[in-house]
Amino acid sequence: MNALVGKALADARAKAQESVRSLRLRKPALDDDAIDLILRDARSHYAWTDRPVAPELLETIYQITSLGPTSMNCCPARFVFATSLDAKQRLAKSLKEKNIEKMMEAPVTAIIGYDPEFWRELMFLFPHEDRRPHFEGKEQHSKDTAFRNGTLQGAYFMITARAVGLDVGAMSGFNNKIVDEEFFSGTTIKSNFLCNLGYADESALFQRLPRFAFDQVCTTL
Fold it and tell me: Residue 133 belongs to what domain range?
């Protein structure tokens, strides 16, 4: 257990609080262009240019993604970046026919998975209290927690990729069992969804599909 205690804990908390206050003073909210870039005018892409994605950018995306909130800081998401022809061909075995070309043309396809055994690392991730007994021997609870929080991390990943200048196209038209056998054999990791990354060819876009209005799906009590 490497939890901070005493003055070290108080100093760390004070530093964290001041960092948040300072950031809010410098940047109380994103401007409209930033919001447009990551969500409002962002689109899912299906065609790609041949411009490569730098490996360092993938590391940056992960590092930012990893800072997004998860329950008990459990961080169950696991990522595989398929960039080589061999990896793409292995991944193609799992895809529905209509998705193969989209995946093969993308510079990077991220396999976003989750590890139901995440709780084994909680002494590192959540060092101030041993929460492992909350999950040990509770397979369904562990799986539900991992899937929920891993999906959240997948969403953080997509928004981060857009924020640093990439385009994304998430995909769910594939066979999870095949992906797990090809890429996660011998581990406890399970695949969740795929996400193509790169610099999009916008000529393949079509009009945005409808969304529900606030009053249709939201309730304020």
Answer: 44-201
Number of Cα atoms under 13 Å in the Cβ half of residue 191: 26
Residue 13 domain-assigned (yes or no): no
Residue 30 Cα distances to 17, 155, 171, 187, angstroms: 20, 18, 28, 40
pLDDT (tens digit, 9 = 90+) per residue, 109-145? 999 999 999 999 999 999 989 999 999 999 999 999 9
The contacts of residue 93 (CB under 8 Å, 6+ apart) are 178, 182
Torsion of CA 141, 144, 145, 149, to 10 degrees: 180
92 within some domain: yes
Task: Look up residue 110 and give its amino acid.
Answer: A
Q: What is the CATH number of the domain that holds 192?
A: 3.40.109.10
Q: Which is it for the CA torsion 180, 183, 184, 186, positive or negative?
A: positive
Tens digit of each residue's pLDDT (9 = 90 or more) over 145-155: 999 999 999 99
Q: Is residue 15 part of a domain?
A: no
**Residue of 90, 167, 79, 86 whose CA lies nearest to 115:** 79
C-alpha distances in angstroms, 46 versus 9, 70, 96? 48, 29, 14
